[in-house]
Amino acid sequence: MSPLHVCLALSAALFCTGLVAVLVRGNAILVLLGVELMLNAANLNFIAFWRFGPGGGEVGLVFVLFSIAVAAAEAAVGMALVIAVHRHLRTIRVAAANRLKG
Amino acid sequence: MSIDYALLFRVLLPEALLTATALLVIGVDLVWGRGRSRGSRLQMAVGAGLLGVGVAALVIWQDGAQGSVWAGNLRVDLLAVAVRLGVLGLTGLSLLGLTGSRVSDQPAEYVALALLATVGFLQMAVAQNLLLAFLALELASLSLYVLAGYDRSRPESAEAALKYFLQGGVSAALLLFGFSLLYGMTGRIDLTGISMALAVHSDGSLSAVAVGMVLAAFGFKAAVAPFHPWAPDVYQGAPPMSAALIASAAKLAGLAFFWRIFWSGLGPLAATAPLLGGAGGGWVPVLASMCAVSLLLGNLVALAQASIRRLLAYSAIGHAGALGLGLLSAGEVGPGPLFYYAATYGLATVGAFACLAILDRAGDGDRIEDLAGLRRRSPLVAACFAVCVLSLAGIPPLAGFFGKFVVFAAAFRIDGLGHPAGWVALLAIAMSAVSLYYYLILLKQAWIAEDVRERGPIEVPPAAALGLLLAAGLLVVLGAFPSLLLGRF
Amino acid sequence: MLPASQLWLIPALPLVAAAIGAAAPRTARRLPVFLALAAITGSLLLSVVALVGALAAPAAKLTANFTWFVAGSTAVRLGWLLDPLGALMSVMVCAVSVLVFIFSIAYLRADPRLGRFFTCLSLFVAAMLGLLVANSLLLLLLCWELVGLASYLLIGFWFDRPSAAAAAKKAFVITRLGDLGFLLGLLWLFQATGSSLFYDGGAGVLEAGALERLAATVLPGGWTAATGIGLLLFAGAVGKSGQFPLHVWLPDAMEGPTPVSALIHAATMVAAGVFLVARVFPLMAADQGLAAVPVHALTAVAVVGSITALLGAVLAVAQTDMKRVLAYSTVSQLGYMMLAVGVGAWVAAVFHLITHACFKALLFLGSGSVIHAAHHEQDSRRLGGLAGRMRFTYVTFLLGTGALVGLPLVFSGFWSKEAILHAAELWPVSHLPFVAGLTGVVLTAFYMTRLVCETFLGRPRGEGAEHAHESPRVMTLPLAVLAVASVAAGWIGTPAWPWLQSRLTGAPVAAQAWSDGLGLMLFSTVLVGVGIAAGWWMYGRRPRVDARALDPLAQRWPRVFAALAARLWFDELYAATLGRLLRGAAALAAWLERWVWGGVVGLTGRVAETTGEVNRAIDEDGLNTGFDRASDGLRRTAQQYSRAQTGDVQGYLRAVVVGLAVLALLLIWGGVR
Q: Helices B283-302 and C626-642, interaxial angle, to 10°?
């Protein structure tokens, strides 16, 4: 198993962990964390391909820097929205937000 | 490789202008707006925003198509110019519609966020590189999440925003993961390079996963089934003009964006074997089946809706199927039909939501029965609503009819029924007959049913009335003279 | 004369009148009326000028085409066409419309929405005229849809009556079913030929080059593209012209004001379908010479026409509503026209279309006069005794009846019907149209005699009939004009002087010898006599005394009569098949959705629910609300389907992930390079 494969397997595991967190955790903050894990799995991919893959230049590295920044912004917005929901519902359980349906 | 920075600045000038306007709006509101009424602060913000949008549009119009810029990272072709102008127009109409909505307590920030989202849309139209594309998409999405949750007085708004955000976040993660695999397979992040590398060599299962993830992100952005569930909740819960922006400008920009990714980047993977007699490969048949499901689901479920905005959301899911069809056929016949459909659909949607915003401000609910007596209460709103809804239904001579016509004709032109697009187009034609039924229900309430509650006339601010008339007028004009848009492609 | 490039003026005038009328304030009641009348008169004059020009060169197809828009490499072109067929039809439409407009002034004088009524009428006529002068199938379709929209507005004009609203919806939706075929045919034709123009200097779709190409394109099973396109276009005509099996909307369309019925049944809406088939006749006939085609397009037309002709006549026998009798008679007569086109005699079809327009407009306006006088009583059982009270209406109605049943030698209907029967007799493929036509002749004579006897003879049997008196001059004047036309319109196409035939085909047609077809004429005259005699014997000899008395036919054959009175349960049939099918599809969709979201538990529940639904639906069969139930059922299932959107965002995400997995599987299964 080459280092690339190890990295890819790790990132796949990370991605799945994040996905499962998003799907099953009741706490909105943990769901947000799941999304972050998924984004970071992608980042890990970029690094791995940059280091071991066919790519040239520093493109993969640059991509990761930007996407970490984006993930941070996304986390900030997400927290703000969780707080907004909490103001109305007094809970951060995702399942509690179900007025809109049908 | 030398870069012409003057040209790059020129191309990015509209984005810079809008960003500056956004900051200016907030700054002026802080200094000048202190102690003033919310109404006048809103007027200032909308006025400044419109000015910025107008100047940006003028710059884009003046410069026209300039080809590849900045070592091929941006592509300012005809489609890019058209989409950027279209996005600016839709944003402008949304801002006009804002004057007819319930006034929020922070109008300047709202306008600034809408302008920042527009910057994202503008970038989505030109990005030719995975990194720029991702950044543009996220800039637009992050602004839209906040806009969806902007109405702090209603729990529905916060709920809609959270749902939108969670699904958007997951889809962004999927997209990023898909991009990383594409980068891994090709070593490139520019679409041309990816396309060339994929044409030479690609890894079957890896590219299947990558393509699937990109398709999922597209499905989210355009509300194509099965990635649609956010749409009804967001359309219903978000403030009306935020929903309008999400449904119109964001969709137009998103389609241009994915048109580039799919055809300029993933073009070599599109290949499809004959539909009957052997499985088709590539992403074209998969996208076609997504469109078919979307058409069926959206149009059927719309029949059962009691909320106007939910009904429009499900109908939007149906329209997304048709838009996806346009995306499919764009590879063969060019993006003209797709652009026409998306732009006129956006126009009709903004118009319809602006009407709903005015009703919302008048304190009316969102149920279909609440439309009753609209003809008496405000003939202007009723007429503009009718034009927009009829255009959505695809009644000639309105623009919506032509959108359908050119997209379906393009789908048939590929290879008749020898191509999956032909079959989806057949389904779409049948479904447009179904859709007529629920659109007519809306019109019947607005135009024929009498208001049992005897509510008084609705007040329409002049700027909002102007926006409504512009949207309805454009739908009529573009329907009567489709060459105004189509002739340019 | 009017050059082809100016033809657009003919539909434009009423369209402008409609536009101004729509924009006029509601208080200006007279303005739309005046404008509509002025515009339609102008159109009539223009059409006459156009007709004169067209008759000067009957074989030439004068066209004026222009490019509408260009999308990529495809240019969509539209155009106007001047030929005797279109010009003659527009004269007929304008003339009938003028009379109906005049009649409506009196008929709807008291209605507060008179202005709106005339606005809709103008739109209706404008769309129809546009359809007649169009030289492009696409333009024709646009006008065709506008006709449908205007008819929706007019049939539902009294929308405060639920039955009127339902009838309008039914008409709209059912005709759209046919339009679907039309649209598909148009797209196919456009894809195959790259043009939608009828005549375009050799490149049009009705010209030899394109027709040969279409006939040479062979599909699986021996069908040709020409057959397929022809049948699809015919589907549109089936919907619009009320042909079996889509005839169910036409009788319900009686819910509109009577002048609208007159217009729909005589000149505008239903004529559109026959006109379409006559217009694209070269295309329909393109596959005639090919033996490999299993069913020629025209054969299908002839069979559908025959069934309709017979079915309409049979159903008309048991109706008691005056207007419904006339409505089924229209269905039947339209069947005759389609039958004529099917056997290749499109000229006879157009001839019958024109004479039928005259006498059916007369009959409808006559019934309108009766209904107006009898305070909106239209059940013929509660009328009676009007012959003396409304002498003028009675006489004109009799003349119209004579034309419809085809009394020999004098009346117009005789000549056009003879032409059709003659053509049907000579048709080599089958005797069905001929036999159906002859049977229809007897039935027509029978039910019209029944209608006249019940309405006008005997003693008044209701409040309305007792106080009836002759209608005002504005209403009787159009009756007089139409009565003259109903008699005389047939003389332009007799076998001795086939003026119409030679003008329409653009080639001289020799006069037939008198002996040719004389036997047929005698025979059908005898049949008419039999029908009238039977009708008189049952209804005229001893006129009905009591409004509640059983119909003589019902006494004799109660089961048959009940079946006919229930219109052979077509509505119920549609509810049970079409409605069930739609419901099944929606249920299937719901089933899939539930499975993804709710897992096995939801699945079991759903299956049970669906079974329950189907069971209940079976129990409820036999109700007379077929169409509405079909849409209700669809709505209900859609509601259940919609409930799958539970509001739980993580549920949505689970669905999304399942969708993604399916997508990836599809991609891997299909193979990505």
A: 120
| Interface probe with C: pick from B300, B443, B444, B486, most Cβ of C within 10 Å | B300
**Among B310-319, C289-298, C368-377, C413-422, where is mean pLDDT lowest?**
C289-298
pTM: 0.64
Taking an 8 Å cut-off on Cβ atoms, the answer to whether A94 and C650 are in contact is yes
pLDDT 10s digits, C13-28: 888 888 887 777 767 7
Check residue B13 and give its pLDDT.
Answer: 93
**Contact criterion met (CB below 8 Å) for B83 and B253:** yes
| C553 vs C8: CA distance, rounded Å | 52
| Contact between C646 and A22 using a beta-carbon 8 Å cutoff | no
B243 min Cα distance to partner chain A (Å): 14
How much is the ipTM here?
Answer: 0.95
A65 within a domain of the structure (yes/no): yes
Q: Residue B433 pLDDT more than 90?
A: no
CATH number for the domain spanning A43: value is 1.10.287.3510
Chain C nearest CA to B479, separation (Å): 11
Map tokens 């009407």 to a residue.
B355
Asked whether the beta carbons of residue C672 and residue B429 sit closer than 8 angstroms, the reply is no
Domain membership of residue A78 as a residue range: 3-96
Taking the CB of residue C541, how many other CB atoms lie within 10 A of it?
9
Measured CA to CA in angstroms, residue B489 lies from B110, B412, C73 at distances of 35, 19, 10
Q: Which chains touch B (3 or more CB pairs under 8 A)?
A: A, C
- The whole-chain average pLDDT of chain C stands at 78
Contact flag B301-C642 (C-beta cutoff 8 Å):
yes
Name the residue with higher pLDDT: C416 or B472. Answer: B472
State which residue of chain A sits closest to B234, comparing Cα positions.
Answer: A100
Please tell me the total count of domains within chain A. Answer: 1
Instruction: Classify residue A67: in a domain, yes or no.
Output: yes
Say how many CB pairs under 8 Å bridge B and C: 166
What average pLDDT does range C309-326 have in this prediction?
Answer: 83
pLDDT of residue C496: 65
Among B159, B203, B301, the strongest candidate for a mutation testing the C interface, having the largest count of C CBs within 10 A, is B301
pLDDT of B213: 92
Query: Nearest residue of A to residue C650 by CA position?
Result: A23
Calpha distance B137→B333 (Å, rounded): 26
Q: Is residue A102 part of a domain?
A: no
**Cα gap B16→C147, rounded to integer Å:** 52
